[in-house]
TrEMBL record:
Entry similarity comment: Belongs to the FBPase class 1 family.
Gene from which this protein is expressed: fbp
Name this polypeptide is given: Fructose-1,6-bisphosphatase class 1
UniProt keywords, alphabetically: Carbohydrate metabolism, Cytoplasm, Hydrolase, Magnesium, Metal-binding
Location within or outside the cell: Cytoplasm
Species in which this protein is naturally found: Gallaecimonas pentaromativorans
């Protein structure tokens, strides 16, 4: 049995980062407990409030956010945090060594139907300046020192990279420990499975419409093979499937809100998932640019996402490049 802390030590991860990851793990164990209590704990349903993105907050969005925030701020390791559920950054300990951004409960519309949800996090090393503000977070995803998620499904898993491949840990609910269950994740460069919300097809840009049209033509079309489709409506679960058995995931730009480059958030969703996908041998792009190279302009910014099997992401980029 290999415990999270021992695996991280063997990988040469420094003690401060190990402590921070353990703190995230503890908060997620508590989120896991609340989720599994469901209606018994009165945690299902929505609050009266909207978050800064204009989305109605579920009770568990708020509970998960508060659990993470409180534990991280108490740890003394965090100089500041940014959350999808907070309007502004929250300043922690000025001597804290890290900045952390998170989506406390991704896919929260799945809560009320008892389907998969997850917590996604992205960690940067803080500099030793005495000033910390939103601009401290505006770093490209390539500078993340760790990224991961906890997915709450039939089993609860912590999926993590510290820049040395991707590992999966399963929460042993009896021991209360995350135990290593997958040592190294590899995504096949080819796939015959895609994940996209097809109901939006008429709103997408032409290259994405053409790409999906060609997939749907199957073995009689230009791709010469049949494709299967899956959509969980929680990025964390769709990305988890890709890390387990391959595939392509996209939430592309859509003309209904042309001012927004996409639905998903760069700092809380796209960057951490892009680091995991690249560390597992896949690729993550907007269709025209590597996600991890994007220079963020604000913490809540959104981005178009195409990620997963390297050759399939390359195929999508070809459709975009022919359009130009
Ligand atoms: P919520 O956390 O608000 O439910 O949103 C989840 C999400 O941002 C992402 O995890 C999904 O991939 C995507 O939205 C699902 O969007 P659709 O509503 O278009 O299915």
């Amino acid at each position: 049995m290999q415990f999270l802390v021992n695996v991280l030590r063997q990988d040469g991860v420094d003690n401060a980062l190990i402590s921070l990851l353990q703190t995230v793990g503890v908060a997620c164990k508590e989120i896991n407990f609340r989720l599994h209590q469901g209606a018994l704990a009165g945690v299902l349903g929505s609050t009266e409030d909207e978050n800064v993105q204009g989305e109605v907050q579920k009770k568990l969005d708020v509970i998960s956010n508060d659990l993470l925030k409180d534990l991280l701020l108490q740890s003394g390791l965090v100089k500041a945090l940014a959350s999808e559920e907070e309007d502004d950054i929250v300043v922690g300990d000025i001597d804290g060594q890290f900045l952390i951004a998170f989506d406390p409960l991704d896919g929260s519309s799945n809560i009320d139907i008892n389907a998969m949800v997850g917590t996604i996090f992205s960690i940067y090393r803080a500099n030793d300046s005495l000033v910390v503000d939103e601009s401290s977070f505006l770093q490209p995803g390539s500078l993340q020192v760790a990224a991961g998620y906890v997915v709450y499904g039939p089993a609860t898993l912590l999926v993590l990279t510290t820049g040395n491949g991707v590992k999966m840990f399963t929460l042993d609910q009896t021991l209360g420990e995350y135990l290593l269950t997958v040592k190294k994740v590899n995504i096949d460069p080819d796939t015959q499975e895609f994940a996209i919300n097809m109901s939006n097809q008429r709103h997408w840009a032409k290259p994405m419409q053409d790409y999906i049209d060609d997939l749907l033509k199957g073995s009689e079309g230009p791709r010469g093979k049949n494709f299967n489709m899956r959509w969980v409506a929680a990025m964390v679960a769709d990305v988890h499937r890709i890390l387990c058995r391959g595939g392509l995931f996209s939430y592309p730009w859509d003309r209904r809100a042309p001012e927004k480059p996409g639905k998903l958030r760069l700092m809380y969703e796209a960057n951490p998932m892009a680091m995991l996908i690249e560390q597992a041998g896949g690729r993550a792009s907007t269709g025209t640019q590597r996600i991890l190279d994007i220079q963020p302009e604000q913490i809540h910014q959104r981005v178009a996402v195409v990620l997963g099997a390297a050759n399939e992401v390359g195929a999508v980029e070809q459709y975009y490049s022919h359009q130009r």
